[in-house]
Amino acid sequence: MIKKCLFPAAGYGTRFLPATKATPKEMLPVLTKPLIQYGVEEAVEAGITTMAIVTGRGKRAIEDHFDISYELEHQIKGTSKEPLLDEIRALINQCTFTYTRQTEMKGLGHAILTGETLIGQESFAVILADDLCYNDGDAPVLKQMVSIYEKYHCSVVAIEEVPADKTDKYGIIAGNLIDGTDDTYRVDDMVEKPNPEDAPSNLAIIGRYILTPDIFDILRNTRPGKGGEIQLTDALLEQAKKGRVIAYKFKGKRFDCGAVDGFVEATNYFYSSFKGC
Ligand code: G1P
After folding, report:
1. Which domain of life is it from (predicted)?
2. Quick check: pTM over 0.85?
């Protein structure tokens, strides 16, 4: 039912300068795989095969990554290196990649609105590739969210509890647990990056969303909010006021690979899982 996944990927990645001067932050590798490839794999595992990527200047490496590299493939054909391209080859064969460019950086809400041309009038998923999610045994986070969407047919945001002094790094929700669940909330308020004293809870939105297409009209009319940017959180609040947003406390781990600490933590975690330690 959810066929498309939007990846906002136009940001500068200033926290990783100078690495991100000429390399998109979405292409930074955790072990041998770029962040955005983890995101695309998660979308595929949720049954999605159309990737809608909102890029910007200096992001061409993303397009090249999800394309065939004839010269390279010719060079390593028949050698022991050939299987190293199996995973990315499988993604290229399975998925359609579509792109549009965000020419001005006016916030996450603006990036999503820029992607409208790739999505159209259907509900869609959003992955922020620098939130890297990992599951040991459970279904991938986006797959869990698709099941929630299929039950409630409204927008869904993934949440996790954060320490009270970290609320100013996230969109924070308030809501009530839906009867009979211990992980699914009907949202009635949300605030972008509130100071701890103004935060309605410690339930933070992480970079996984399912959005209904009316979000585009709302975003068109959303004024700049926190930091002078058009905030997705503000647009979602309009849906929440009508009872049309669910927050889901996902099962699994999430690494904030948009910051050096989280990136190193993810690298260590994946390395030890990979080595079986
Ligand atoms: C964005 C959203 C924020 C959300 C976060 C998750 O912020 O605006 O609501 O909690 O992603 O990673 P950013 O991290 O892009 O500043």
Report:
1. Bacteria
2. yes
